[in-house]
């Protein structure tokens, strides 16, 4: 359970205690055959016996490093322990930041530590979300926007600005894709969403509070103009509102109080960047943080994607690019560019698959997801089995892949609907996976073609 302490009594009775006040959505319990292993002075991993060795190997030593950097930036970690519970494959989220015990997807067990940095996001919630919480789901960005900013501050300290900017560029691309799908003027693309009849609060869980929220927090940092001063503000903000649920007005009011010189300048009303516009107007962020430090990693990936999209492959140039040292998000960025350029000329994806088994045979879930999307968008039937295997093994990719199969952005003259339907029917695995699929995923992937429904119309 998400609690500061627990003890086992007789007759398999367990008693838990949470000594800190928390919002009700962070109360979580898990029941099963679960064992644990220490991975740090205040951390252990929990999992089913078949996963515990892999979990220990993957996370031994790394959690403490992230926690230590977080404390340096944002103040004391007040929750005591930071444990991780690896959930069954049906768990439909990357992670859930329950205090003291984060629940995570087994997708993070890549076997090579290539996804351990994902846990930085959940650790960042220890200050933003768990300690200072949005009062309503209509201002979810107060949790996620600040957490994305905190995640990237920790990442910059640990991995450097180039890698962090590359990861942020991937997030920006997801925001662009989301707004293209929904339309920029969709009311859910505001930071302050009005939860009224007909609006499902679950729908606020999208890229906008995360990435547009991150852009707004970055804009506040830009107004301050000094990273150390803004870091100090974040510590003061956490200390001011810890163990409270607050609104955006509380946050921005405290910001202007903390920086009276900015209030005197009227920064809340700068034309085009008004705080009211940020909160209440849907659409693309008025301000985008500078990601140019990531260009040294993005440029080679962009150039390689261009080579693979050419009608005539320049294999000499392709073979001159060594991707063996590329880290996860550089590979993810490369695959996103390939996906954007797909469908590629005939035969190119097959050759790409053979050239890069590091990608096409990866165990890393982020790479597997994007490779499966490329397989589907290019109608590469020879590798449909990899898509089937991925969907059988993990529930998280269901919504993303089903969106690819049916969403209008891919149903164009370049990629006719019959091709999508043929791919969807070929992936006749829905009946076998449906009983173990989490309800939100069933809802999100409701557009997936039913293999027994007959031809698409």
Automatic annotation (TrEMBL):
Ligand binding (Zn(2+)): 121, 125, 144
Signal peptide: none
Pfam families reported for this sequence: Leuk-A4-hydro_C (PF09127), Peptidase_M1 (PF01433)
UniProt-listed Gene3D superfamilies: 3.30.2010.30, Neutral Protease Domain 2, Peptidase M1, leukotriene A4 hydrolase/aminopeptidase C-terminal domain
UniProt remark on cofactor binding: Binds 1 zinc ion per subunit.
Family, similarity comment: Belongs to the peptidase M1 family.
Residues at the catalytic site: 122 (proton acceptor), 210 (proton donor)
Alphabetical UniProt keywords: Hydrolase, Metal-binding, Metalloprotease, Protease, Zinc
Domain Peptidase M1 leukotriene A4 hydrolase/aminopeptidase C-terminal: 296-429
Organism: Strix occidentalis caurina
InterPro entries assigned: ARM-type_fold (IPR016024), LTA4H_cat (IPR049980), M1_LTA-4_hydro/amino_C_sf (IPR038502), M1_LTA4H (IPR034015), Peptidase_M1 (IPR001930), Peptidase_M1_C (IPR015211), Peptidase_M1_dom (IPR014782), Peptidase_M4/M1_CTD_sf (IPR027268)
Protein name per the record: Arginyl aminopeptidase
Record-level Gene Ontology MF annotations: metalloaminopeptidase activity; zinc ion binding
Cofactors demanded by this protein: Zn(2+)
CC terms in the record's Gene Ontology section: extracellular space
Any one biological process term the GO annotation gives: proteolysis
């Amino acid at each position: 359970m998400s609690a500061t302490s627990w003890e086992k009594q007789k007759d398999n009775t367990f008693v838990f205690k949470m000594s800190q006040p928390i919002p009700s959505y962070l109360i979580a319990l898990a029941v099963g055959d679960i064992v644990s292993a220490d991975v740090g002075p205040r951390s252990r991993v929990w999992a089913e016996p078949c996963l515990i060795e892999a979990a220990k190997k993957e996370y031994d030593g790394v959690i403490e490093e992230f926690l230590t950097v977080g404390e340096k930036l944002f103040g004391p970690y007040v929750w005591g322990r930071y444990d991780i519970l690896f959930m069954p494959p049906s768990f439909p989220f990357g992670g859930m930041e329950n205090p003291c015990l984060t629940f995570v997807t087994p997708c993070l067990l890549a076997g090579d530590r290539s996804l351990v940095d994902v846990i930085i996001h959940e650790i960042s919630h220890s200050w933003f979300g768990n300690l200072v919480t949005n009062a309503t789901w209509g201002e979810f960005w107060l949790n996620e926007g600040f957490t994305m900013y905190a995640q990237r501050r920790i990442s910059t300290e640990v991995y450097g600005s180039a890698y962090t900017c590359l990861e942020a560029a991937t997030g920006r691309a997801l925001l662009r894709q989301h707004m293209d799908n929904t339309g920029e003027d969709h009311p859910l693309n505001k930071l302050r969403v009005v939860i009224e009849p007909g609006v499902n609060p679950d729908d606020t869980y999208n890229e906008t509070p995360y990435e547009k929220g991150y852009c707004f927090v970055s804009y506040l940092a830009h107004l301050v103009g000094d990273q150390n001063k803004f870091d100090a503000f974040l510590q003061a903000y956490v200390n001011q509102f810890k163990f409270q649920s607050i609104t955006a007005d509380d946050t921005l009011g405290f910001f202007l109080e903390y920086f009276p010189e900015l209030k005197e300048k009227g920064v809340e009303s700068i034309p085009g960047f008004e705080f009211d516009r940020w909160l209440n107007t849907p659409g693309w962020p008025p301000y985008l943080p500078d990601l140019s430090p990531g260009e040294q990693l993005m440029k080679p990936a962009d150039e390689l994607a261009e080579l693979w999209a050419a009608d005539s492959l320049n294999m000499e140039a392709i073979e001159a690019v060594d991707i063996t040292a590329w880290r996860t998000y550089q590979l993810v960025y490369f695959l996103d560019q390939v996906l954007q350029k797909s469908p590629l000329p005939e035969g190119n994806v097959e050759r790409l698959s053979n050239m890069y088994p590091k990608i096409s045979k990866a165990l890393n879930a982020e790479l597997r997801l994007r490779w499966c999307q490329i397989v589907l968008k290019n109608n590469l039937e020879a590798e449909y089995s990899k898509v089937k295997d991925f969907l059988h093994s993990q529930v998280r990719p269901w919504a993303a892949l089903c969106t690819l199969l049916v969403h209008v952005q891919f149903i164009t003259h370049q990629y006719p609907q019959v091709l999508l339907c043929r791919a969807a029917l070929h992936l006749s695995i829905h009946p076998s996976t449906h009983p173990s699929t989490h309800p939100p995923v069933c809802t999100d992937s409701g557009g997936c073609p039913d293999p027994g429904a007959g031809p698409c119309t």
